[in-house]
Amino acid sequence: MRNLFEIDPWKIIETKFDANKQKQAESIFSIGNGSFGQRANFEEKYSGDTLQGSYIGGVYYPDKTRVGWWKNGYPEYFAKVLNSTNWIGINIEIDGEQLDLNVQQIKYFHRELDMQKGLLKRTFRVVFGSGKELEVESIRFCSMAREEIAAISYTVTPLNFSGNVKFTPYLDGNVSNHDANYDEFFWLEDSRKVDIQKGILCARTKKTNFCIATAMRFSFWREQELLTIHPNVAQRDFYVENNFEHYLEKGVRFTLKKYVAVTSTINHSEFELAAKAIKRVRDAYTSGFDTLRTEHENAWAEIWKSADILIEGDEASQQGIRFNIFHLYQTYTGKNAKLNIGPKGFTGEKYGGATYWDTEAYCLPFYLKTADPQVAKQLLIYRYHHLDRAIENAEKLGFKNGAALYPMVTMNGEECHNEWEITFEEIHRNGAIAFAVYNYVRHTGDTAYLSEYGLPVVAGIARFWAQRFNWSEAKKAYVMLGVTGPNEYENNVNNNWYTNYIARWCIQYCLEVNAQVSAALPEKLSAKEIKDFQHIVENVYFPVLTDTNIFLQQDGFMDKEQLTANDIPVAERPINQHWSWDRILRSIFIKQADVLQGLYLFEDHFSEDIIRENFDFYEPKTVHESSLSPCVHVILAAKIGRMDKALELYLRTSRLDLDDYNHEADEGLHITSMAGTWMSVVEGLGGVRVTENGLSINPSIPKPWKAYSFQIRYKNQPLALSITQHKVTLENLGSAPVSCKLFGQEISVKEGEKQEAALK
Amino acid sequence: MRNLFEIDPWKIIETKFDANKQKQAESIFSIGNGSFGQRANFEEKYSGDTLQGSYIGGVYYPDKTRVGWWKNGYPEYFAKVLNSTNWIGINIEIDGEQLDLNVQQIKYFHRELDMQKGLLKRTFRVVFGSGKELEVESIRFCSMAREEIAAISYTVTPLNFSGNVKFTPYLDGNVSNHDANYDEFFWLEDSRKVDIQKGILCARTKKTNFCIATAMRFSFWREQELLTIHPNVAQRDFYVENNFEHYLEKGVRFTLKKYVAVTSTINHSEFELAAKAIKRVRDAYTSGFDTLRTEHENAWAEIWKSADILIEGDEASQQGIRFNIFHLYQTYTGKNAKLNIGPKGFTGEKYGGATYWDTEAYCLPFYLKTADPQVAKQLLIYRYHHLDRAIENAEKLGFKNGAALYPMVTMNGEECHNEWEITFEEIHRNGAIAFAVYNYVRHTGDTAYLSEYGLPVVAGIARFWAQRFNWSEAKKAYVMLGVTGPNEYENNVNNNWYTNYIARWCIQYCLEVNAQVSAALPEKLSAKEIKDFQHIVENVYFPVLTDTNIFLQQDGFMDKEQLTANDIPVAERPINQHWSWDRILRSIFIKQADVLQGLYLFEDHFSEDIIRENFDFYEPKTVHESSLSPCVHVILAAKIGRMDKALELYLRTSRLDLDDYNHEADEGLHITSMAGTWMSVVEGLGGVRVTENGLSINPSIPKPWKAYSFQIRYKNQPLALSITQHKVTLENLGSAPVSCKLFGQEISVKEGEKQEAALK
Prior knowledge:
2 copies of one chain form a homodimer. Chain A is an alpha+beta fold. Among the domains of chain A are: 285 residues, Beta-galactosidase, Chain A, domain 5; 170 residues, Alpha/alpha barrel (Glycosyltransferase), CATH 1.50.10. In chain A, strands 1, 8, 9, 10, 11, 13, 14, 15, 16 and 19 form a 10-stranded antiparallel beta sheet that branches. In chain A, strand 6 and strand 7 form a beta hairpin.
């Protein structure tokens, strides 16, 4: 796979402007701070092909459902994160000619995303029609220290002339979602105001009535000297600007510093919104760009201190993992209970920016091992608050007695998706939400969670599964018909092994939780339910391949033409961009881990031999056209000692967007799979596991690597692991001793101490 | 089931205006002449809930596809029959108040569809706000004798006053398709013209450039006296009108006779279109309403002479069958090779008015047994002309070497449908098209057809099937994965018995045709193909229920919860309006005949016992929520002697729309299933079969009926059958003797002679 951009351990670097890569670059160089974010669109006008995107966490719009053929049960709308006020805008004009990289001749172009410091930088030189040459240097960031603040430093230097240049910093709320179903404009303007000091634009979403306020101020500098500027003001619907012309001397750097505050009713009442934005931007202006930048860089340094994974000897791997960690933290910091993790974060519109099972299946393990337990708990409670909606959702599909089906896609708990084979059938998601409760408790030991929040959710989910199974008189067993497993290249299959397995596990787990919780919760199981659940647990049907240990992905799987992914001509990859849907469906090819996803989640239920046999059966059939696929394979491959395969797939997951494997980075990045990438290092190569029996560590290292190291949190103690080709070092950075198994040996590491072991 | 309208052997009668039934009535009282047609909208203004519909056979628009989630292989557009110029309009105004049945008090209302004469009549009395009472009597028809002419007689009588009444006959091209995907307006105006004698409106479809011209003239009568009128003219975009005010004396009948011509580029060049319309309307005007009406009634009398089915002793059955025959002839007369039979005919927009497998599976047998063989041949050649497109369609899905997949829905041979489980998977349609060739040849003996048109189509279809099967190493047989059978309440199943059966049959038939055709056609099979085909024919897998003769609808069918339709609460019927789609899919309930469809088509391959066993297994699980379901069941029920069930289902099919069983008549009628209704009498009760061994007749009669009789054509000889509770009479109305089997006995009936036999 060719690299799209330069390799560097801390930076993504683009050294030549390529209009054809612009949308990919806009995604990859995106910045955000967990609260809001922005694609790497240019500050100045750009008339070429671009996907403008500015997003505020939690602010969504219910876009009227669009389908070809309505099916009973479809939701009325799809809740979408909105493209909102463009706050980066700074137009530059010389002699009536707008600066526009799609128009002027470009003599130099350098863009970099400094992941260590959280900065998006750009330097370029252009020649205007008049022959005037200009150099521009811009730096911007969304502050990790002040969650409602962004700042831009935009420096213009005339290279071969002195003369007037016009600067127009502006805010523009005339933005639409590219993916709007009916080209609807989702915003109403509440107010706008602009004076010589500041501009503010207040807008409100139609229907949902989320209000946002975006405020700006600017200062203007000749080298290090602050100039006093009396700008003009202009405004129209959804738009405010300042503008001024200034005489720039040849070779002198003139800098416009733009400060922006973005507030919303996610965090404030409607009435104080504008005032808060104005206050925040005034504070930022008063602090000044350098102070803000230092605060921001410090915040990132704090994050990296514990979150970084250091890989020595392989810069592509190093860059890849940091890229993933960087974007994860840009998307979700864990500070705000109202937010969740959209599949594209703040890097694009696709998938609506809403919550998927990705959160529980891929992101939660990351936060459980890296963040304060409160962050994971917060993600769990998010679903607890949606329980009533999940019950309503199940009722709509004909289930009863408190059965809960969590939605495939949601913003407020209501189902948004409208594709029958997914919406109604990809129900394994429900299992991931129950598993998340289990996973949280085994990581944290917080069993109190079960009474207050856990049982209601787990019981709702188990009740759903109990009704969704049906007794097959033919098989004398419980079967589950008409589902779509994690492998979405199969639809409407019977007895998907993964779904049957996690469903049975949920029912079993519900029985256990029910027995543990002594509180007289209304959700507790009745005696009849307990008996029925027990009967199901003992009698679920699982498809298997006779005379092997292979679990069949679904009934009828062996009727398929038995091919491997190597049989597909390269020109036909990815198949989802080359083959008709029916051909994909009836082929044997697997989009993402399915049976293997189950073996990953329930690893301790299966012997290594069984895992190996199934891995060898399924991996060659898997095309990894879901971003969520390779990470699971890395973890299993490492476990069974297939280190070459593990490294190959690690590179694929960690550089999926950086190298745009699936030809879709232009639409945004695969944020939720980035947590999977982290897991592929820590759980995969690092062999870190947290089970009911505690922490165990079985590290290995790919041959090309010299060493790698990372931190995890266990029982709230930070531990540092460092692995070379020869030894593993475990250091307890915390304040209490930690016990664990290292290569199967029980060890205890005191606070502040290290232990070493030879690599096996 | 409650009857919507009055029971009468020749008429549909509505005696009270009910605004809630208006859209159903508009469908049911529709009129057409095979060339164009019109829902029973009112001539005068109607401000209530209505679905305006005026359609011209073959004129369509490629409406941009609308889907929620795009799948590779979807077509760019859905070709739709268009709502076109409203030609019925006659507005009536008194003292500035428009006549409008949604506004005035209605004192009397009577609407009838005279099926014998092909007339839509309406008489009503209303009281205006001023207290003025008016009686209106309208009669209209689309001429069966002149395929581009319609006429309306609109009589107004002031009942309690004398005074001025304003008449406004008009043409209005400002009409949209209710089902337009993006609310697009599909027409461009070419020209319009109106003078005191006539008006004309010429329009053109966007993209497809079909042109239509609609011309009108009128005359005005005081009782039988022709008055000279100098009307005003008015026009605007897509609209022309005449209008005049006239003093009407109390109790005197004033009649506006409106003549309309509708021409299109289906039949004329663009350049002569307007002139033809003006000439046609002038001729109609010159002939006069009464002459046109007489011609039209005579044409219908001619149709009924051979097409009628007479049922004595059961008026509901009698009305039902005539309603079906009437609408079939209104939709398709067999005169125009460019037309086909849309599922809703000229009665609504749903399903786009395009060609489905309905034509081959349900309509063709009707025309084969009632019409000149040329009509059936014409329907076959329509598909022959689409062969190249069917090959392209298959290529798009990854098939090669001349494999042809006919579209699910089409206007010009290209696939229009966009629902993956149908578009790509409901491929059994391909089988029906090959079977139609076989059926045509066995009815007509026209084996010459095979060389010229038959082999290419059959070979393309067989090549598709040969590639669509795949070898299952597990089953050591050919399987077919990922299909949707005729029962659309299952999607993406493996080894649908019906599809496997007809697919194998197609391959087998192709081998036979290939052997028969001596011409050196490029489509002839290669030696390797012959060998491969033979191998498939001998090794196709069919799911069966062990220890029975039951053919399983698909793999896994016995895992379903084993219920019957009686287990569904009445309030939840039809399930497609009450249950979520996933629930329908995983339930056992069958929308329409599937295995039984196969037993019907290939009846001579199976013993009566096998048919009975499968009928008894499947019929109780069938909810008949497709209009195409009951007819097949009637035929099989009659064959196995279940006469009560046959009658029950006959009534359901014949009165499906009349009594609106499935709550959807407002959207239009189920035209193609009407041919199935005819088959349910002739093949079902009448026991008429035409096989390779000739004609056989095994009639039976439901207990409540006194007698029934009908005609068929066999080897182009008209035969009349009449069945009472005691005997059957077969009369040869033709000019050559006919041999057949009556109750298994070989008989020969000379021209002009009758034979009788006692009913078994």
